[in-house]
Design the sequence.
């Protein structure tokens, strides 16, 4: 907290800016293509697991139990992480969205 205060005082005193002044040269403003590719990969992953997820959800099995089952079976998230109740919830919502889309 004190460090932030001291830095803000220094900035106010001499007008210096922190960080890379040329960041605009390296960062991309148009992320449309990357977002489309990421969405495509996520949709493909969900389609491969959609049926059992929706069945478990319709059977009123808790999200936590579904996550535990997926982790026990060695089924990871698209990024290779363990499932949580929140990730299962997002997967089920995406399944429903994809079914309504088709």
Sequence:
């Amino acid at each position: 907290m004190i460090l932030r205060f001291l830095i803000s005082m220094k900035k106010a005193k001499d007008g210096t800016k922190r960080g890379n002044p040329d960041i605009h040269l390296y960062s991309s403003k148009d992320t449309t293509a990357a977002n489309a590719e990421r969405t495509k990969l996520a949709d493909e992953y969900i389609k491969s697991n959609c049926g059992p997820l929706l069945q478990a959800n319709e059977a009123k099995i808790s999200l936590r139990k579904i996550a535990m089952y997926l982790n026990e079976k060695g089924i990871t998230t698209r990024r290779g992480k363990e499932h949580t109740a929140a990730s299962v919830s997002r997967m089920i919502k995406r399944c429903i969205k994809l079914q309504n889309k088709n």
Remarks:
- The helical segments are 2-14, 23-26, 32-58, 63-72, 85-101.
